[in-house]
Amino acid sequence: MARVSMTWSSIPFLNSSPSDLRRVNRHSVMAFASLKKETSSLGVRVTEGQGNLPKVVLTSPHGSEAELYLFGGCITSWKVSNKDLLFVRPDAVFNGQKPISGGVPHCFPQFGPGPMQQHGFARNMNWSIVDSQDVEGNPVVILELKDGPYSRAMWDFSFQAMYKIILDAKSLSTELVITNTDNKPFSFSTALHTYFSASVSGASVKGLKGCKTLNKDPDPKNPLEGEEERDVVTFPGFVDCVYLEAPSELLLDNGLGDKISIRNTSWTDAVLWSPYLQMEACYKDFVCVENAKIGKVELGPNQSWTATQRLSIG
Ligand SMILES: O=P(O)(O)OC[C@H]1O[C@@H](O)[C@H](O)[C@@H](O)[C@@H]1O
Question: Which residues does a 6 A CB cutoff place in the pocket of ligand 1?
């Protein structure tokens, strides 16, 4: 295994607070330029994304490419043969305040509504880069999120989230490790809220038959319990449904000619979401197939939870 490591702590904006980050962004033309030069051989480079937010670009020697924003630790693009398999909503904002609506946002430490803001805070905090590697020619980047005053105001615990992203010729893999760095236990729910490019009328998901369901349609506050009976689940209208104890592999036909395998370890549940007329301008162009952990994960001090996801195309 070839491995080239690089530490990013010397790069000022990567470990900064949101206000520092904005300040650095305004004055960082040189920093971006030198980063580009230093890292291009790794297939990992940092550049200026939309809204002047730092964006990491992974380029595989096999031609695939991925992009992610440090804001939210959000992967926004995964291109194979120049075709983006992920979707970013046209109403997405890149202002370092609101979560980026699209790609692969994190829901952590809460999935959906609850005591804190919808889907938790991880999708609107700045993650930092702790390492980048070249593993057998494939670019790898590792991001980290730790608690700070913003998260503490909502969830008063010390934690570390490490998020490794690996780009291969036809796959995009992630590993999320949540560690309790506090001296008291905590619990959380979480999801990778993946938006896939799709033609909604032709899209379908296989692998969910037999799962227990919590259907948030028609009343999200009182989900209906049921069981999925279909081999092939389609998106004929509004869909917002949790699948409990989903299998370790789902197959998405995006209706655009691609079959995408969605494999996981430890993401025990899945969520399908299509907003239909709630998002008239774009609902036809994507479906969300989310790996999730709806039942709470409980971690004592120094304990960790690890979950992997592998998206691959045939
Ligand atoms: O608009 P948000 O906060 O990103 O959430 C979008 C959707 O996310 C899904 O995961 C939920 O199941 C839906 O209920 C929710 O509406």
Answer: 101, 112, 118-119, 193, 216, 220, 240, 271, 273, 290
